[in-house]
Amino acid sequence: MSTLERTRDWLRAHPLALDAALATGVLASMVAGSFVDPHGGNGATWGARTPNALSLALMVLGAAALVFRRRAPMAVLAATGAVSLVELATGDPRAPVAMSAVVALYTVASTTDRPTTWRVGLVTMTVLTAVAMLAGPMPWYAQENLGIFAWTGMAAAAGDAVRSRRAFVHAIRERAERAERTREEEARRRVAEERLRIARDLHDVVAHHIALVNVQAGVAAHVMDKRPDQAKEALAHVREASRSALNELRATVGLLRQSGDPEAPTEPAPGLARLDELADTFRNAGLPVEVARCDHGTTLPAAVDLAAYRVIQEALTNVRKHAGPEAKAEVSVVRVGPNVEVTVLDNGPGQDEAPEEGGGHGLLGMRERVTALGGSCTAGPRYGGGFRVHAILPVKNRTPALGDSV
């Protein structure tokens, strides 16, 4: 950073010092101008003159007031206007004390609004020019009197232009900062939604397959000594369920890899086309499952198809975990107008909170999936015993789903 840049940064950090430097420069200009007589000389050059003590005192007072122009711009304008009026009415020869009022008027215009600038500027221009014309020692048509009007007008216009540009730059910066905050909030929201989606998928995969593994492992341990053939069959089911869990976990975790990763999974997401296969896994685990479908010929979007599959998977998993060893389940998929209705019934004890004991998130995940697609999901005990899960999914999802890319 150069010396000039460091000096500029320091002055911006210390505005009072900058105003003191400006006041010193204005005082030097006023004093230098007070020694010049534009009406002296031989017509080709200006003559010299000597300002009186009153003029010098008024110049010092006007310049000193400018030191506080940022803190109290109106008060500084009033003070510099007052000393300028005294000089305009009594100075002979006249000294350029009005320069301090010009600077003060510029400050007011650059720090206030446009209506205030118009009012204060017109009053300052009118009063100073009128006093110079009517009470000053020069003729009213002297160019110095007209110069006061011109300089005060330009000061008000320049200050208003600076204020407008500053407001414009501030508005642009504010919009940019707001846009940046919006982008950051949107990024955080998308990250949170993605984490929720991944957690929901992992829960669906792990809860389903681990429940099956647990059941089959319990069967194998129970019949290991007396019926080794049945224990061997149960262990085979354990192996198959664990292999399926690993494959689905690999597919889900693969979504977290970079897009160019050659090992990313390419297997399609599960859907209702695999419903019979899903039902067979539960039948092998000892849960009788009946499936009825009246949706043939209906092509579902990938997100809706996946959501329907996950709802049935989670509902059957809850039946196997909580409905008891004698429970049976019924699954129906029906096309009703623009929607597909998925229903899972069981004949278990029908306890309200049973599927979510131990802090589970199965029902919550189902509702989130269905709601994200613009559908609805209800779950609760059936009259006379058992539990019912009912989901209504639009055939054409109206809301972008979080699971579209799964």
From TrEMBL:
Please give the superkingdom of this protein's source.
Answer: Bacteria
Report keywords, A-Z: ATP-binding, Coiled coil, Kinase, Membrane, Nucleotide-binding, Phosphoprotein, Transferase, Transmembrane, Transmembrane helix, Two-component regulatory system
E.C. number, please?
Answer: 2.7.13.3
Per the database entry, which stretches of residues form a coiled coil? 169-196
- What protein name applies here? histidine kinase
Q: Fetch the Gene3D superfamilies from UniProt.
A: 1.20.5.1930, Histidine kinase-like ATPase, C-terminal domain (3.30.565.10)
The organism's taxonomic lineage, starting at the top: Bacteria, Bacillati, Actinomycetota, Actinomycetes, Kitasatosporales
Positions of the Histidine kinase/HSP90-like ATPase domain: 303-397
Enumerate the GO terms in the molecular function aspect: ATP binding; phosphorelay sensor kinase activity; protein dimerization activity
PANTHER family assigned to the protein according to its UniProt record, in alphabetical order: NITRATE/NITRITE SENSOR PROTEIN NARX-RELATED (PTHR24421), NITRATE_NITRITE SENSOR PROTEIN NARQ (PTHR24421:SF10)
The reply on keyword Hydrolase is: no
Question: Which reaction(s) does the protein catalyse, per the Swiss-Prot or TrEMBL entry?
Answer: ATP + protein L-histidine = ADP + protein N-phospho-L-histidine
Mark the transmembrane ranges. 16-36, 48-68, 120-140
Q: Which GO terms describe its cellular component?
A: membrane
